[in-house]
Amino acid sequence: MATENALLTILVEKINNDTLVLPTLPAVALKVRRAADDPDINLSAMADVVSQDPSLSARMVKISNSAYLGRAVKVTSIQQAVTRIGLRQIKNIATALAMEQLFVSKNEIVKEYMSRIWVDTIEIVASSMAVLQIHTKQTKNRTLNLDSMMLAALVHNIGVLPILTEAERHADVFANPTFLDVVLEKLAGKIGTSIMTEWGFEPEFVDVTQNWKDLSVTSDAVSYLDLVRLGSALCGKFESHKEDIFNAAVEKGIIDDLSAVLSDEFDELRNNAKQIFQ
Protein backbone atom coordinates (compact mmCIF):
# COMPACT_ATOMS: atom_id res chain seq x y z
CA MET A 1 0.00 0.00 0.00
CA ALA A 2 2.81 2.41 0.89
CA THR A 3 4.19 2.43 -2.64
CA GLU A 4 0.81 2.96 -4.24
CA ASN A 5 0.21 5.85 -1.83
CA ALA A 6 3.62 7.26 -2.71
CA LEU A 7 2.79 7.29 -6.42
CA LEU A 8 -0.65 8.75 -5.66
CA THR A 9 0.92 11.41 -3.44
CA ILE A 10 3.48 12.39 -6.09
CA LEU A 11 0.79 12.61 -8.77
CA VAL A 12 -1.71 14.50 -6.65
CA GLU A 13 0.99 16.94 -5.59
CA LYS A 14 2.01 17.49 -9.22
CA ILE A 15 -1.63 17.97 -10.24
CA ASN A 16 -2.12 20.53 -7.46
CA ASN A 17 1.11 22.41 -8.26
CA ASP A 18 0.39 22.27 -11.95
CA THR A 19 3.74 20.53 -12.54
CA LEU A 20 2.44 17.24 -13.95
CA VAL A 21 3.89 16.83 -17.43
CA LEU A 22 0.93 16.34 -19.74
CA PRO A 23 1.36 14.70 -23.12
CA THR A 24 1.44 17.07 -26.08
CA LEU A 25 -0.66 16.43 -29.14
CA PRO A 26 1.43 14.97 -31.97
CA ALA A 27 2.73 17.86 -34.09
CA VAL A 28 0.84 16.83 -37.21
CA ALA A 29 -2.46 16.72 -35.31
CA LEU A 30 -1.77 20.20 -33.97
CA LYS A 31 -1.09 21.52 -37.47
CA VAL A 32 -4.24 19.95 -38.87
CA ARG A 33 -6.36 21.30 -36.00
CA ARG A 34 -4.96 24.81 -36.45
CA ALA A 35 -5.51 24.68 -40.19
CA ALA A 36 -9.07 23.37 -39.74
CA ASP A 37 -9.87 26.28 -37.41
CA ASP A 38 -8.70 28.80 -40.02
CA PRO A 39 -11.83 30.22 -41.71
CA ASP A 40 -9.88 30.76 -44.95
CA ILE A 41 -8.55 27.21 -45.26
CA ASN A 42 -9.40 25.30 -48.43
CA LEU A 43 -9.16 21.62 -49.33
CA SER A 44 -5.94 21.97 -51.25
CA ALA A 45 -4.16 23.83 -48.43
CA MET A 46 -5.41 21.19 -45.98
CA ALA A 47 -4.07 18.42 -48.23
CA ASP A 48 -0.65 20.15 -48.09
CA VAL A 49 -0.71 20.15 -44.29
CA VAL A 50 -1.64 16.45 -44.09
CA SER A 51 0.91 15.45 -46.71
CA GLN A 52 3.74 16.71 -44.48
CA ASP A 53 3.28 13.48 -42.52
CA PRO A 54 3.61 10.46 -44.84
CA SER A 55 2.19 7.99 -42.34
CA LEU A 56 -0.90 10.16 -41.68
CA SER A 57 -1.36 10.69 -45.44
CA ALA A 58 -1.32 6.96 -46.05
CA ARG A 59 -3.89 6.39 -43.33
CA MET A 60 -6.10 9.19 -44.63
CA VAL A 61 -6.14 7.59 -48.07
CA LYS A 62 -6.90 4.25 -46.42
CA ILE A 63 -9.80 5.66 -44.39
CA SER A 64 -11.20 7.32 -47.53
CA ASN A 65 -11.37 3.91 -49.14
CA SER A 66 -12.70 2.11 -46.09
CA ALA A 67 -16.19 0.79 -45.49
CA TYR A 68 -16.37 3.51 -42.81
CA LEU A 69 -16.96 6.08 -45.55
CA GLY A 70 -18.80 3.53 -47.65
CA ARG A 71 -17.67 4.59 -51.12
CA ALA A 72 -17.00 2.30 -54.05
CA VAL A 73 -14.63 4.47 -56.12
CA LYS A 74 -11.07 4.23 -54.82
CA VAL A 75 -9.10 7.38 -54.08
CA THR A 76 -5.33 7.30 -54.50
CA SER A 77 -4.05 10.76 -53.58
CA ILE A 78 -4.16 12.81 -50.39
CA GLN A 79 -5.99 15.58 -52.34
CA GLN A 80 -8.80 13.17 -53.19
CA ALA A 81 -8.83 11.78 -49.65
CA VAL A 82 -9.16 15.22 -48.07
CA THR A 83 -11.94 16.10 -50.50
CA ARG A 84 -13.82 12.93 -49.69
CA ILE A 85 -13.40 13.22 -45.93
CA GLY A 86 -14.31 16.90 -45.87
CA LEU A 87 -12.81 19.81 -43.93
CA ARG A 88 -15.07 19.50 -40.90
CA GLN A 89 -14.36 15.83 -40.27
CA ILE A 90 -10.67 15.99 -41.02
CA LYS A 91 -9.85 17.80 -37.79
CA ASN A 92 -11.14 14.96 -35.63
CA ILE A 93 -10.04 12.12 -37.89
CA ALA A 94 -6.45 13.36 -38.19
CA THR A 95 -6.27 13.86 -34.43
CA ALA A 96 -7.64 10.37 -33.84
CA LEU A 97 -5.20 8.73 -36.23
CA ALA A 98 -2.21 10.55 -34.72
CA MET A 99 -3.13 9.51 -31.18
CA GLU A 100 -1.44 6.12 -31.33
CA GLN A 101 1.95 7.88 -31.37
CA LEU A 102 1.43 8.75 -27.70
CA PHE A 103 1.07 5.17 -26.50
CA VAL A 104 4.76 4.21 -26.51
CA SER A 105 7.22 3.41 -23.74
CA LYS A 106 10.69 1.98 -23.27
CA ASN A 107 9.93 0.26 -19.98
CA GLU A 108 8.62 -3.30 -20.47
CA ILE A 109 5.85 -3.16 -17.84
CA VAL A 110 4.70 0.31 -18.85
CA LYS A 111 4.88 -0.67 -22.52
CA GLU A 112 2.70 -3.69 -21.77
CA TYR A 113 0.15 -1.36 -20.12
CA MET A 114 0.27 1.13 -22.97
CA SER A 115 -0.34 -1.48 -25.63
CA ARG A 116 -3.11 -3.18 -23.62
CA ILE A 117 -4.84 0.15 -22.98
CA TRP A 118 -4.52 1.07 -26.67
CA VAL A 119 -6.06 -2.25 -27.79
CA ASP A 120 -8.84 -1.82 -25.22
CA THR A 121 -9.44 1.74 -26.38
CA ILE A 122 -9.78 0.70 -30.03
CA GLU A 123 -12.38 -1.91 -29.02
CA ILE A 124 -14.35 0.81 -27.21
CA VAL A 125 -13.93 3.23 -30.15
CA ALA A 126 -15.24 0.61 -32.58
CA SER A 127 -18.20 -0.32 -30.37
CA SER A 128 -19.13 3.33 -29.71
CA MET A 129 -18.99 4.14 -33.43
CA ALA A 130 -21.14 1.11 -34.25
CA VAL A 131 -23.66 2.11 -31.56
CA LEU A 132 -23.87 5.62 -33.02
CA GLN A 133 -24.49 4.26 -36.52
CA ILE A 134 -27.26 1.97 -35.25
CA HIS A 135 -28.72 4.86 -33.21
CA THR A 136 -28.71 7.20 -36.23
CA LYS A 137 -30.35 4.56 -38.40
CA GLN A 138 -33.07 3.78 -35.83
CA THR A 139 -33.87 7.34 -34.74
CA LYS A 140 -32.80 9.49 -37.73
CA ASN A 141 -31.19 11.71 -35.06
CA ARG A 142 -28.08 13.24 -36.65
CA THR A 143 -26.91 15.59 -33.91
CA LEU A 144 -23.86 13.43 -33.14
CA ASN A 145 -21.09 12.94 -35.72
CA LEU A 146 -19.15 9.77 -36.35
CA ASP A 147 -15.78 11.57 -36.47
CA SER A 148 -16.40 13.28 -33.11
CA MET A 149 -17.57 9.95 -31.74
CA MET A 150 -14.32 8.34 -32.87
CA LEU A 151 -12.21 11.01 -31.20
CA ALA A 152 -14.29 11.14 -27.98
CA ALA A 153 -13.95 7.38 -27.51
CA LEU A 154 -10.23 7.54 -28.34
CA VAL A 155 -9.49 10.14 -25.66
CA HIS A 156 -11.90 8.86 -23.00
CA ASN A 157 -9.04 7.25 -21.05
CA ILE A 158 -6.20 9.60 -22.09
CA GLY A 159 -5.52 10.45 -18.43
CA VAL A 160 -3.62 7.17 -18.05
CA LEU A 161 -0.69 8.54 -20.07
CA PRO A 162 0.92 10.92 -17.53
CA ILE A 163 0.45 8.29 -14.80
CA LEU A 164 2.31 5.70 -16.86
CA THR A 165 4.97 8.26 -17.82
CA GLU A 166 5.50 9.04 -14.14
CA ALA A 167 5.70 5.30 -13.35
CA GLU A 168 8.26 4.93 -16.12
CA ARG A 169 10.33 7.75 -14.67
CA HIS A 170 10.67 5.83 -11.40
CA ALA A 171 10.36 2.39 -12.94
CA ASP A 172 12.19 0.44 -10.22
CA VAL A 173 9.60 1.54 -7.67
CA PHE A 174 6.35 2.18 -9.51
CA ALA A 175 6.28 0.10 -12.68
CA ASN A 176 4.31 -2.53 -10.86
CA PRO A 177 0.85 -3.76 -11.91
CA THR A 178 -0.53 -4.15 -8.38
CA PHE A 179 -0.63 -0.48 -7.56
CA LEU A 180 -0.56 0.95 -11.06
CA ASP A 181 -4.10 -0.43 -11.46
CA VAL A 182 -5.31 1.38 -8.34
CA VAL A 183 -3.69 4.68 -9.27
CA LEU A 184 -5.01 4.53 -12.84
CA GLU A 185 -8.49 3.87 -11.48
CA LYS A 186 -8.31 6.79 -9.03
CA LEU A 187 -6.67 9.52 -11.09
CA ALA A 188 -7.09 8.90 -14.83
CA GLY A 189 -10.37 10.85 -15.11
CA LYS A 190 -9.07 13.92 -13.31
CA ILE A 191 -5.82 14.00 -15.31
CA GLY A 192 -7.67 13.34 -18.57
CA THR A 193 -9.74 16.43 -17.95
CA SER A 194 -6.57 18.52 -17.58
CA ILE A 195 -5.20 17.13 -20.84
CA MET A 196 -8.36 17.88 -22.80
CA THR A 197 -8.43 21.42 -21.42
CA GLU A 198 -4.72 21.92 -22.14
CA TRP A 199 -5.22 20.68 -25.72
CA GLY A 200 -8.12 23.09 -26.18
CA PHE A 201 -10.63 20.36 -27.03
CA GLU A 202 -14.35 21.19 -27.16
CA PRO A 203 -16.49 20.69 -24.02
CA GLU A 204 -18.05 17.42 -25.22
CA PHE A 205 -14.61 15.78 -25.17
CA VAL A 206 -13.80 17.17 -21.73
CA ASP A 207 -17.16 15.82 -20.54
CA VAL A 208 -16.29 12.30 -21.73
CA THR A 209 -12.82 12.10 -20.13
CA GLN A 210 -14.08 13.63 -16.92
CA ASN A 211 -17.30 11.70 -16.44
CA TRP A 212 -17.42 8.45 -18.40
CA LYS A 213 -16.88 6.32 -15.28
CA ASP A 214 -19.22 8.34 -13.06
CA LEU A 215 -22.66 6.92 -13.81
CA SER A 216 -24.35 9.59 -11.69
CA VAL A 217 -23.48 12.16 -14.41
CA THR A 218 -26.16 12.12 -17.10
CA SER A 219 -27.70 14.48 -19.65
CA ASP A 220 -31.17 14.87 -21.14
CA ALA A 221 -30.06 14.61 -24.74
CA VAL A 222 -28.18 11.62 -26.12
CA SER A 223 -24.48 12.49 -25.84
CA TYR A 224 -21.03 11.16 -26.73
CA LEU A 225 -20.70 10.37 -23.02
CA ASP A 226 -23.67 7.95 -23.22
CA LEU A 227 -22.22 6.23 -26.25
CA VAL A 228 -18.72 5.86 -24.79
CA ARG A 229 -20.29 4.29 -21.68
CA LEU A 230 -22.39 1.93 -23.73
CA GLY A 231 -19.42 1.08 -25.95
CA SER A 232 -17.32 0.40 -22.83
CA ALA A 233 -20.00 -1.79 -21.27
CA LEU A 234 -20.22 -3.78 -24.51
CA CYS A 235 -16.43 -4.32 -24.22
CA GLY A 236 -16.73 -5.78 -20.74
CA LYS A 237 -16.08 -2.68 -18.62
CA PHE A 238 -18.45 -1.68 -15.77
CA GLU A 239 -18.93 -5.36 -14.87
CA SER A 240 -21.27 -4.75 -11.92
CA HIS A 241 -23.23 -1.94 -13.61
CA LYS A 242 -23.49 -3.39 -17.09
CA GLU A 243 -27.23 -4.07 -16.81
CA ASP A 244 -27.89 -0.51 -15.59
CA ILE A 245 -26.03 0.95 -18.56
CA PHE A 246 -27.88 -1.28 -21.05
CA ASN A 247 -31.26 -0.47 -19.50
CA ALA A 248 -30.48 3.26 -19.42
CA ALA A 249 -29.53 3.14 -23.12
CA VAL A 250 -32.86 1.59 -24.07
CA GLU A 251 -34.80 3.90 -21.77
CA LYS A 252 -33.09 6.96 -23.22
CA GLY A 253 -33.81 5.79 -26.75
CA ILE A 254 -30.18 5.30 -27.76
CA ILE A 255 -31.15 1.86 -29.09
CA ASP A 256 -34.58 0.25 -29.41
CA ASP A 257 -33.49 -2.85 -27.55
CA LEU A 258 -30.40 -4.89 -26.80
CA SER A 259 -30.78 -7.10 -29.85
CA ALA A 260 -29.61 -4.08 -31.90
CA VAL A 261 -26.09 -4.41 -30.48
CA LEU A 262 -26.03 -8.20 -30.63
CA SER A 263 -26.73 -8.27 -34.35
CA ASP A 264 -24.57 -9.15 -37.35
CA GLU A 265 -25.02 -5.58 -38.55
CA PHE A 266 -23.50 -4.28 -35.31
CA ASP A 267 -20.55 -6.68 -35.63
CA GLU A 268 -19.93 -5.57 -39.19
CA LEU A 269 -20.03 -1.88 -38.28
CA ARG A 270 -17.68 -2.52 -35.39
CA ASN A 271 -15.22 -4.42 -37.58
CA ASN A 272 -15.30 -1.66 -40.19
CA ALA A 273 -14.38 0.85 -37.48
CA LYS A 274 -11.58 -1.36 -36.14
CA GLN A 275 -10.00 -1.61 -39.59
CA ILE A 276 -9.31 2.12 -39.55
CA PHE A 277 -6.68 1.49 -36.88
CA GLN A 278 -5.09 -1.64 -38.29
Mean pLDDT: 89
Report the order of strands and helices. Answer: HHHHHHHHHHHHHHH
- Count the E strands: 0
Name the structural class.
Answer: mainly alpha
Low-confidence stretches: none
Quote the beta fraction: under 5%
**Envelope shape:** globular
How would you name the oligomeric state of the polypeptide chains in this document? single chain
Discrete helix count: 15
Terminus-to-terminus distance: 39 Å
Largest sheet: none
Helix content: 55-70%
**Over all CA atoms, what is the radius of gyration?**
19 Å
Kindly describe this structure.
This protein has 278 residues and is mostly helical. Helix content is 67%, strand content 0%. The chain contains 15 helices and no strands. It has helices at 2-17, 27-37, 43-51, 54-64, 78-85, 87-98, 108-139, 146-155, 160-169, 171-174, 177-198, 203-211, 224-234, 242-251, 264-275. α2 (27-37) runs antiparallel to α3 (43-51).
